[in-house]
Design brief:
With 450 residues, the chain is of the alpha/beta class. The protein has helices spanning 22-27, 96-100, 166-240; strands spanning 7-13, 35-43, 51-60, 70-78, 82-87, 105-110, 119-120, 154-156, 161-163, 244-249, 252-257, 281-283, 308-310, 315-316, 322-323, 329-330, 336-337, 344-345, 351-352, 359-360, 366-367, 374-375, 381-382, 389-390, 396-397, 404-405, 411-412, 419-420, 426-427, 434-435, 441-442, 448-449. The protein has a domain at 7-139: Immunoglobulin-like (Sandwich). Residues 1-5, 7-30 and 126-166 have low confidence and may be disordered.
Length: 450
Amino acid sequence: MPANRRWSYAALALAALVLFSPSLLASTHSQDVLIPVQGLLAGADGVAVEGPVAMHFSLFDADDATESVWSESQQVVVEAGLFTLHLGALEPLAAALFHHNGQLYLELRVGEDDAMERWPLGVTPFAAHAHFAGNAARLEGRSSAELRADATAYDNSGSGLTATTLPSALDEILARLAALEQQSAQALASVESRIEALESENAALVGQLEALELALATSMEATQEMIDAQAASIGALEELTAPMTRETIDEQDSIAFTNVNVHVRSGSATTHGTINGRGNLIVGYNALRPESDIIEEPANIRTGSHNLIVGDHHNYASYGGFVTGSENAIMAAFSSVNGGHRNTASGPFSSVSGGATNTAAASYSSVSGGSANTASGNYSSISGGSGNTASGSAAAVAGGQGGLATGNSSAVSGGYQNRATGAASAVSGGSTRTASGAFSWSGGEYTSAM
């Protein structure tokens, strides 16, 4: 027979129990019979089949016969590989069929597979032939008592039947079924073990998924809270920056502040609070001074607060000041340098308006311009010139070169190297004149007023 099958049949038990009574056989030749069939169906891989399967049964009068004497198709439900059915349930199986045929062979075909090897029918189905036998009561002279119900063999040549008794055949079938049942139990135990492992793995995965879902929900909640907080912050920022607009002014990108004041604070709570180098408004980069250009130490001092810084290379050491130009310094409270180069306002409320290397070193002192001038007395001033000094309180040098006003309230109006050293003394001009007495005055050349 062909071997290309999807199924293998570990056992096919033909219990062959004829489901009718002897009295019915005796009354009619047309009595139909049922033959119970039980078997175990497994796939080609040895795994027991489960579910409905189409089966086609045929009876032949010879092992090699091509025409069947009876056939029937049934849809059989297979459970764990085991199936049970009755031949003749759909197509009538006449008892006379067993009378007219000495030996019948059963053939099974499952689905579209090739037919399996034919099985010769056992003894019991031929019980349907008993009422046709010439000596049914004696069986070739034997009494029914001589036919024991155990595993004794017998020969009934008259009926053409030679076989062992049914108990022996059933014992073999039951043994095979028991072995198959054990195999099925082992396979089932293996499957159940795998199912338990998969269920355990699935439970772990479900736990992980639930943990991930919880973490995701928590994360989403936190994210939403952050989004809400950021939205509120953005709303507040938009409200705060409403007076500020980005515009194009004089063909340049610009930020405009409308209807507001701009405050720059150090965080010290007051303008004259502790300085910390913050709270300054710096216009430009205010680069550090090159070390090679610095005479005084330290080179760069930028510890002040609340100052307006415009230009480059400036120092600022206090608060409330203003400096512009280049390399200028404001070193005391509320001092200012309005321009020039390397000028210093180091007295409180002092100022240098311009020029170069000028110094206003005392309180309320000022230098308006010129070069190398020093106003070192309180309230002193130098209007211009070069190399002039006003060291007396409220002393003044209006101009000239090398002028010196050391007396309180003294004045040098101009000239060259003139000196007013007495209190309230004055030199109007000339060269190398000196007014050393209180309230003295001098002018001209090489003249002294004592």
